[in-house]
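Bumping with the actual sequence this time:
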Amino acid sequence: MKRYIALFAPIFLISLSTFAQVGVGTTTINDSAILDIASNEKGVLLPRLSTIRRDAISNPAYGLIIFNTDTQTLEHNRSTTTIPRWITIQTGAAVTSNTTQSAKYTNDALTIVNLNTGSGTNVPLFGTELWNDNTSLFIPNTDEIIINEDGRYKVMSNISVISASSNARKSPEAYITVNSVHVGSFATTGYMRQTTNHNTSSLHLNEILELHSGDAISIRVRQAGNGTNATFRGVETSNIYIEKID
């Protein structure tokens, strides 16, 4: 038996090299396929790796596919071999989003909240919807917005604040959170107090984030100096903008 295998193996390899196509379970290989697998009873089982083992792959090719046992999803590398970007292959409902779709919200007249607390506060920026291109993709939820599809997103926020009580020095700062975890840079007002026209300032954030379906995005502020109140400068003076870019 081994002698027959040794005899036919070179012929098989020559055949593969000549035709550059392989059929498994079929002899009628589709002209557009290098590998054509046919079965009425079985499927294809891809390599099953944890996230740690996936990240240990050396120079993963663009388009490489694995099954992630941690997330229970199929993933493919959508970037380079040196800086891989593993994206979940969408299943279930069809993808309905497009790049450049965006949503923007602003604070409303009913919102009065202290933006200068030691423990921090999620900024209530979703009082008024200015627009939402895709309500299935961007889902506002009280003081956060939930993303319903994997991808890269631009997140921008502008917060206008005013010292609401006492001339104590204060310096509120803001940052973005994803699922209540800080990400990206900080924005700070610098010196503020309720005297000699030093009572107003603003915070500006501009980040591009890689997000996953179900991630909740919020803007959080906290005191970086003394206490005492700081609030929105007025109605619709603060906002959040989010755009799908990839």
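The tokens above came from a reply further down the thread. The chain has two domains: 2-88, 102-244.
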